[in-house]
Amino acid sequence: MRHAYRRRAVLRGVDLRLRPGALCGVVGENGAGKSTLLKILSGELRPTRGTVHHTGAFGYCPQHVVLNDALTVRQHLEFFRKAYRLPDLRYAEEIMDVLDFAGYVDERVGVLSGGTRQKLNVTLALMHDPRVLLLDEPYQGFDWDTYQRFWDLAARLRDAGRSVLVVSHLAYDTERLDELWRLDDGVLRRDEAASA
Ligand SMILES: Nc1ncnc2c1ncn2[C@@H]1O[C@H](COP(=O)(O)OP(=O)(O)OP(=O)(O)O)[C@@H](O)[C@H]1O
After folding, report:
1. pLDDT number for residue 191
2. Of 10, 137, 140, best ligand 1 pocket probe by most atoms within 8 Å of the beta carbon
3. Which residues form the ABC transporter domain (predicted)?
4. CB of 186 sitting under 6 A from ligand 1
5. pLDDT of 52-93, one tens digit each?
6. What is the pTM of this model?
7. How far lies 90's CA from each of 28, 81, 116, in Å?
8. Is 29 within 8 Å of 161 (Cβ atoms)?
9. Closest residue (by CA) to atom 7 of ligand 1?
10. What's the whole-number average pLDDT of the chain?
11. pLDDT tens-place string over residues 1-52
């Protein structure tokens, strides 16, 4: 796959297959094209060349939180429940418990802290239990406990057969990953040394 913004080539050689039951990381420096890659995988952006195939539902957590400040957490959950056609919010509530922010359910999103907004952002991407998870810097703003619990949740989803892709500019916690990919100069390469 390739992508250029006007004449600026950002992705020059990207070929990625996400296996079921794999927790994968993509790292790269600021501006390497990681968000561009996730936008293409999620369909937000059409690549200059190449195609993306999905075999089932996916969840996309964009780098920038897309929330409505005037609505409460519960109203966001209800809105997405309808969009995903879910019978109830039981699974969403489980995720909220894991991320420890169920107490904010009746707060307006505009008054939430950055980390709590991000917890909601992640919950909205996961709550329909998709087969593939595309997560762009999902733990930004998380405190240490939440960060650990996020990784436990990611591992649980992997163990349940989901494909989990986490994008980050930091190659932290690479021992938690099944595969590590590095995006450098527009080319995506498997980082064998760090891959488990
Ligand atoms: N809409 C756009 N129009 C033009 N250039 C863009 C656009 N979006 C991104 N770029 C450029 O493409 C390059 C890759 O950006 P991208 O956001 O994908 O990088 P990233 O690896 O996610 O960076 P970061 O770690 O800082 O989030 C950057 O040089 C950026 O300036």
Report:
1. 86
2. 10
3. 1-196
4. no
5. 999 889 999 999 888 999 999 999 999 999 999 999 999 999
6. 0.93
7. 36, 10, 19
8. no
9. 5
10. 94
11. 999 999 999 999 899 999 999 999 999 999 999 999 999 999 999 999 999 9
Residue with tokens 């992508």: 3
Q: Whose CA is nearest to atom 30 of ligand 1?
A: 31
Distance (angstroms) between ligand 1 centre and the Cα of 85 equals: 33
Domains and CATH numbers, the chain: 3-190 (3.40.50.300)
Supply the pLDDT for residue 194. Answer: 58
CA distances from 9 to 12, 37, 153 (A): 7, 12, 35
Question: CA 70, CA 26: separation in Å to the nearest integer?
Answer: 34
CA dist 93 → 14, 34, 100, 141, 143 (Å):
36, 30, 10, 21, 20
**Cβ(51) – ligand 1 distance below 6 Å:** no
In short, whether 34's Cβ falls inside 6 Å of ligand 1 is yes
